[in-house]
Every structure is written in C-alpha cells, then in structure tokens.
C-alpha cells in the first residue's frame, strides 16, 4: 500500500464493499489507548470497578472502537486526510475479556456517491460476534 | 438529578492551546491500529503535501476532551460524571490535524433534552489553530442516566 493509490471514483457503485477488516482487542489495547488518549476512566481496565457500576465487564473505550473502525476506510482511501466527516452512534458496549479479548469486525460499503464533490459516503458495519456495536457509522471521503 | 435546562446555548471560554506533539500523534496512531505511513513518517507526510505527520481522524477527541472537562466540572451543569454514557460522536474537518498544530477548543452546549429519567446533552467544540482558522468541529452527545 502506498499513499499515492487513490481509489478510482468513477468505478465505484453504491453497495460496493471497499474494505473488510478484523481488529483483535486485548486488555493491552485498552491500556495503550487510555495512555494515548488521556481517557483513564477505570471501567476500561479494572474489573472490580466495572462490576461495581453494573457493567458486564471491562469495556473498550467507545472512542477506541470508533478510531479503529475508520482505519479500514483510511487504508482504502490511502490518506487519513481524505476523511472529512466521520460519525458514529455507540449502540452496544464492547466487553473485553481478560483472556480471550474481543474481535471487532468492520465492513465498509459505499453508501452514497457525490459526483460533483467526488466524495463517497462510506457506511461501516461494526460488529463483535453477531452484535452491532456502532450504529449510523458513516465517513465522508474526498476522492477528487 | 435532571440537567439544568438553562445550560442550552451556553458557550465556555476557549481552552488553553494544545500543542500537537509528533510522538503523541504516533502513539495515538498505534493505539487506533493506524498503519498509514503519513501517520508516522515525516518525509512521507511532507511528500503527500502535509507540514508534518497527520493525526488519525478521531485524534480531535484529545483536544475536545479539554473543553468537555469544563462542562463536566461546572457545578451549574449538574452532570454526575459517573452516570455519563457516550451516545454519539461526530467530527467534521476543514483539514486534518498535523503535528505542530496549536489547537484551541471552544465548547457550546447546543441541546439539552430529557428522555424519561435520562438526560441528553449535545456539546459542540469548535477546534481552531494558532491562526484562528477552523480545523475540526467535534460534536458529542452524552447521555446522563437517571434513576430507572
């Protein structure tokens, strides 16, 4: 992959799958994200606190799930600077087991094409197992 | 406790400038599983037309967080942080954040709503660079859980 490879806009069609990625998360991933982002909420690394506030276990930061899901689109588009708008709804928490972790699966599909701006709206399906964890996950990507 | 409805429309003072460090961009990039060389390699980023390495699309949350901290710390707002759940998030960019940027966030509470026992507050942070130019708008909706 090189950053000069830009997807060919005219050849895209609504419904095309442009990327599929799996991201295995472990507790280490959560600690790394806590340090990088400055979000040290203990529900993301302490089982006792997660249980005390009624959660099923330690959760991934929603912003970690949002941040990694868009990487599928970044890699496809060749340049993170092409992503001009990105939104998600946090629909389900991602529980990260201390031993087995969790796998976040991302499918990126063309949702809409804007010929004038040469922009694509990429819709992301983001699941852990059978459960959707991000809703209305959409990135607008400039390909012109 | 319900949220103070008078919070809607409230604008907080701009945060202290945040200097985007090159190693912080690399650290954040690794943490979100970024692999693109423009996130890590200065020469590659410059060849692609950027002043320095490029931060991932969600990096703005680090700067937005400084403005959200003002809202959460405000006793008038009445937000119990232990009951806050992140509902949704959006970033709308004029340009990507690059290492060396000095960024300031100005938060406006754009909406306060009740939903049964819960409250929803939408906070919009305008993030600008040292020249005062818009870089990215970061919008969070926080759900404050009430007693069921």
TrEMBL record, chain A:
<dbReference type="InterPro" id="IPR002539">
    <property type="entry name" value="MaoC-like_dom"/>
</dbReference>
<comment type="similarity">
    <text>Belongs to the enoyl-CoA hydratase/isomerase family.</text>
</comment>
<protein>
    <submittedName>
        <fullName>Acyl dehydratase</fullName>
    </submittedName>
</protein>
<dbReference type="Pfam" id="PF01575">
    <property type="entry name" value="MaoC_dehydratas"/>
</dbReference>
<feature type="domain" description="MaoC-like">
    <location>
        <begin position="18"/>
        <end position="106"/>
    </location>
</feature>
<dbReference type="InterPro" id="IPR029069">
    <property type="entry name" value="HotDog_dom_sf"/>
</dbReference>
Automatic annotation (TrEMBL), chain B:
<dbReference type="InterPro" id="IPR039569">
    <property type="entry name" value="FAS1-like_DH_region"/>
</dbReference>
<dbReference type="InterPro" id="IPR016709">
    <property type="entry name" value="HadA-like"/>
</dbReference>
<dbReference type="Pfam" id="PF13452">
    <property type="entry name" value="FAS1_DH_region"/>
</dbReference>
<dbReference type="InterPro" id="IPR029069">
    <property type="entry name" value="HotDog_dom_sf"/>
</dbReference>
<feature type="domain" description="FAS1-like dehydratase">
    <location>
        <begin position="9"/>
        <end position="137"/>
    </location>
</feature>
<comment type="similarity">
    <text>Belongs to the UPF0336 family.</text>
</comment>
<protein>
    <recommendedName>
        <fullName>UPF0336 protein ESP51_03910</fullName>
    </recommendedName>
</protein>
């Amino acid at each position: 992959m090189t950053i000069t490879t830009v997807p060919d806009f005219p050849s895209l069609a609504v419904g095309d799958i442009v990327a599929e990625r799996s991201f295995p998360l472990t507790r280490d991933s959560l600690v790394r994200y806590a340090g990088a982002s400055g979000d040290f909420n203990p529900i993301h690394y302490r089982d006792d606190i997660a249980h005390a506030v009624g959660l099923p276990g330690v959760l991934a930061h929603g912003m970690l799930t949002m941040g990694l899901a868009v990487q599928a689109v970044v890699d496809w588009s060749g340049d993170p600077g092409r992503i001009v708008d990105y939104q998600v709804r946090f629909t389900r928490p991602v529980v990260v087991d201390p031993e087995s972790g969790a796998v976040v699966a991302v499918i990126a599909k063309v949702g809409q094409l804007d010929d004038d701006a040469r922009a694509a709206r990429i819709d992301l399906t983001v699941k852990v197992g059978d459960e959707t964890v991000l809703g209305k996950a959409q990135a607008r990507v400039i390909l012109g | 406790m319900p949220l103070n409805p008078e919070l809607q429309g409230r604008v907080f003072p701009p945060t202290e400038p945040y200097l985007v460090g090159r190693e912080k961009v690399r650290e954040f990039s690794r943490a979100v599983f970024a692999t693109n060389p423009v996130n890590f390699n200065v020469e590659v980023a410059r060849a692609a037309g950027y002043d320095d390495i490029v931060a991932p699309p969600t990096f703005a949350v680090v700067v937005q967080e400084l403005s959200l901290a003002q809202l959460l710390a405000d006793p008038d707002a009445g937000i119990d942080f232990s009951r806050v759940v992140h509902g949704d998030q959006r970033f709308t960019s004029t340009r990507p954040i690059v290492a060396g940027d000095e960024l300031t966030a100005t938060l406006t509470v754009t909406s306060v709503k009740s939903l049964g026992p819960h409250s929803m507050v939408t906070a919009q942070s305008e993030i600008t660079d040292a020249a005062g130019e818009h870089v990215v708008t970061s919008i969070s909706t926080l759900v404050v859980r009430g007693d069921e």
